[in-house]
Design goal:
One of its GO terms (molecular function) is isomerase activity. By secondary structure, this protein is an alpha/beta fold. It has helices at about 25-40, 70-90, 105-115, 140-145, 150-155, 165-170, 180-195, 195-210, 215-230, 235-240; strands at about 5-10, 10-15, 50-55, 95-100, 105, 115-120, 125, 160, 175.
């Protein structure tokens, strides 16, 4: 299987599983990502998803070998399949955390940016070589994360960006040493899974929808989420536990 996953204690662990190809993204992997995240989104036992890659490389980008002998219609359909995979990750109602242990290239960056945030080791590098490979990609999510001018510089030059710069620019949310990554991921997942599921879901939804509108409209979005949360009744837990927080 190009993508494997397991669920334990409310935490789903998803892995890109083509280590022999440095987890390069091919059509079967696109379809597998879409199917896996559709299933996780519908699973009431899943509270948070950790997404990583098997082997030393998170993802080496699109697998260009599969395009040999194909026509333009096939390549177009293949690109649409990758967009569908990214969108399924992005629209998952559960928090999705990218756990990056090694190099992230091209489509791998798209996968990581489709997650809610990223944990990464200092061994991680990013590269967006799409124009240098004779194609177009990463033009939308990348500029939304790091800004238009920085995105252009990375895309035009295809240079490798180290973990420190990626952290400063926001591609990496939390940076740790390689031997601390697994523990940091487990602690992060446990902290998210501990919170009421509906409150987390509504918070994610409110942030995502609010990004696309004005502040005043965003407040209306948040108020609608608050009303839904009040109707559920789970908010009482926070009131009862307030005195135990520090």
């Amino acid at each position: 299987m190009e993508v494997e996953y397991s669920v334990s204690g409310g935490v789903a662990t998803v892995e890109l599983n083509r280590p022999e190809a440095r987890n390069a993204l091919n059509l079967p992997m696109c379809r597998a990502l879409r199917d896996v995240f559709t299933a996780l989104d519908a699973d009431p036992d899943v509270r948070v998803v950790l997404l990583g890659g098997r082997g030393p490389v998170f993802c080496a980008g699109a697998d260009l070998k599969e395009r040999k002998g194909k026509d333009e219609a096939w390549v177009r359909a293949r690109r649409l399949a990758s967009f569908a995979a990214y969108e399924t990750i992005e629209r998952c109602a559960k928090p999705v955390v990218a756990v990056l242990a090694g190099p992230v290239v091209g489509s791998g960056g798209e996968i990581a940016m489709s997650c809610d945030f990223t944990l990464a080791s200092t061994a991680v590098t990013f590269r967006f070589p799409e124009p240098h490979r004779g194609t177009v990609g990463a033009t939308q999510r990348l500029q939304r994360v790091i800004g238009k001018r920085r995105a252009k510089e990375l895309l035009f030059t295809g240079r490798v960006m180290d973990s420190g710069e990626a952290h400063r620019l926001g591609l990496i949310t939390r940076l740790v040493e390689p031997d601390e990554l697994e523990k940091a991921a487990a602690e992060t997942a446990a902290a998210i899974a501990e919170a009421p599921a509906l409150a987390i879901e509504l918070t994610k939804q409110s942030v995502d929808l609010g990004e696309e509108t004005t502040l005043s409209q965003g407040i209306r979005i948040e108020m609608a989420a608050i009303e839904r949360n009040l109707a559920d009744g789970g908010w009482r837990r926070g009131v009862e536990e307030f005195g135990t927080w520090t």
